[in-house]
Structures are given as structure tokens and as C-alpha cells.
Amino acid sequence: MNTAANYQQPTYSIGVVARLTGLTAHNLRMWERRYGLAASLRSSNGRREFTKTDLDHLRLIKQLLDRGMRIGDIAKLPQKTLSGLCVRQPENATKDSSTAPTATAVVGHALTMHFDKHPRRYPQLALNCKPQSIEEWFSNTEQTDDIDADTGKPQVYLLQIDMVNQAIATQLRKLKQNDNSIFIFYRYAARDLVVDLENVGITMSNSKINTDTVDNIVKEALRQKSYSNLLEQSAEQFDLTLPSERPRQFNPQQLADAAKRSSELNCECPPHLSDLINALNAFEDYSQQCSADNWKEASVHACIYAYTCQARYLMEKALVAVLDD
Fold first, then answer.
1. Domain of residue 188, CATH code
2. What dihedral angle (degrees, nearest 10) is formed by the CA atoms of 40, 10, 69, 220?
């Protein structure tokens, strides 16, 4: 958010920006570290000084967050693109396709008890509750599909797990491959398993099950669904079927290691696939930063980004297949 003329603008402290945007000072500091959304100026004693341009940029981000978009998807977008997304939504976006309750599978005694205790608190969810352990639920493979006559196939899974072990983590990864939103309340889990599951897009919470924590998880689930609906509406404008966003399966070091395994496999596929994935990663980042002057251009870039994610995911699956051969 830096410009050469920022020094000519009035400046605001982080506390004032938080009040004017509805964001928190904690989030502003965190976004600075993660996404480079820093104040354009610093005072002589190191305090952040936000300009009017910074303030306008953050207000656009707040509007899009309120509509269900995720900060990781919009943090690096230019201000023109953010404005294009905010100014006008597609005509059918006002007819909210998400008004129908979201089919949600709930597994676990405490979680089921919570929803039974608050039957009218979550009208946005069509609940299919299973008061059983995760092991019992996974033991019946048909239950993981959970196509209920009233609620339909789940789009969201809220799962209570006492201990996340390797076997359960494998089942969760398999469930995630069906493009479901999965939220886990767990008691015990090795840190590497938690990180691994979060890397594939599963939300992990070590909080106690109570009204506040469940409310926050439900809110996040609905935000994710709203964002997915927004991208699908964009794709419909161009007669496209938009794939779900895919978390990255390999970091740069893992790709470099994979590229060196060609001699072991008597095959040049690993280095070629690693190169393709690196290229797609770079284009994925680039497509997030393309500017747009209106909703149509922003929609096109959203589609490009989503399809690049899908292409990279397919190449990652191919690399896994080669390495496991």
C-alpha cells in the first residue's frame, strides 16, 4: 500500500484505522506480517501511520470479508480489482442462492448435544446429527456420504474427535478429497498431524465445545460457502464449471527434492512435473495480483485463479503417483 505521494496525505494511527474500518488492530498487525498489508509510513519513533489510500484499501477488504471472501484470497489484489468486486455484484447475486440451509453433518456426542440444546440457533444449517464416536462413524463407510432424505449430501462436516491419530487423519484426508468443508474439534493430536490436516484445508480447533466456539466455526463455514457461491456465480457468467480451491501439497524444498529422484526411478517425470508445479504456483500468485476495473474483469481473474489451482493440484497428484510408483 505504498505510493510516492503518501507523505502528502493525512495519516491515521492503527487504533483509528481499526475503529474506522471495523477491523481489529491484532488483525492489521497479523496481515502486515503475513501478506505485506503494512502502513505506508512510519513515524520517527516507529509507529505505524496509515494514509487515506491505506484506509480506503482496508475498507474495501473489510467489505469483501463481510461478503464471505477470505483474506488469503484478496490480500494481495490491487485496489482496482478490490473496487471492481465491491462496486457491483452480478444481478443474480442479490438473489442469494445460499438462502437454502447448508446440509451439515455433525458427529460426536458433545457436538450433537450442543445442537440439540439450541435447535433454533442455526437456521442456516440443515443438520444431520450422529451422536457417536468418530471411529464408529468412519467404520460405516456409507455414513461418511451421509445423504439424508431431508438435508441431502453434506456440504459441511462438523466433527468431534477425542484423539487424532494417523489412521483418522488418513480418513479425514480422504473425506476432504470430495471438496467438503471440514471443521474438527479435537482434544489431543500431534502437532505435525494438525499442520498436515490444516495444509489440505481442514480447520482444526482445540477449543472446548461451547456456544462461542461453535458459533465461530459455523460463521466460518458459512463464509466459506458464501465465497464458493460467489466464484460459482462468476463462472456461470462465462459458462464454466469452477473447481474448488486446492491447498498446495508441496513446498519449494519438497519439489526440489522430488526433482532429484529421476535417477532412482529411471524416469524424467519427477523433474518435469516439479517444474510444471513451480510454474503453476508462480502463475497462481500472479493471477491474484492482476488488476480489474469492473466486476466482469474481476470474475474472469477469479476463474483463472481457480483453474490454475486445479491444474496445479492435478500435477501434484501426478507427482505423488510417480513418487509412490
1. 3.40.50.2300
2. 100
Q: What is the pTM of this model?
A: 0.49
Per-residue pLDDT of the chain (325 residues; tens, 9 = 90+): 654 444 455 788 999 999 999 999 998 998 998 888 888 888 888 899 999 889 989 999 998 888 777 787 788 888 877 877 776 444 444 344 445 788 899 999 999 999 999 988 888 888 899 999 999 998 875 554 554 445 457 888 999 999 999 999 999 988 887 767 899 999 999 988 898 888 777 889 998 999 999 998 898 888 777 656 655 555 555 444 555 566 788 888 888 888 887 545 567 888 899 999 999 988 887 776 666 555 556 666 777 877 888 889 899 988 888 887 6
Asked whether residue 134 falls in the same domain as residue 182, the answer is yes
- 230 phi/psi in degrees, rounded to 5: -65, -45
List, as one string, the DSSP characters of 257-280: HHHTTHHHHT-SHHHHHHHHHHHH
Domain count, the chain: 3
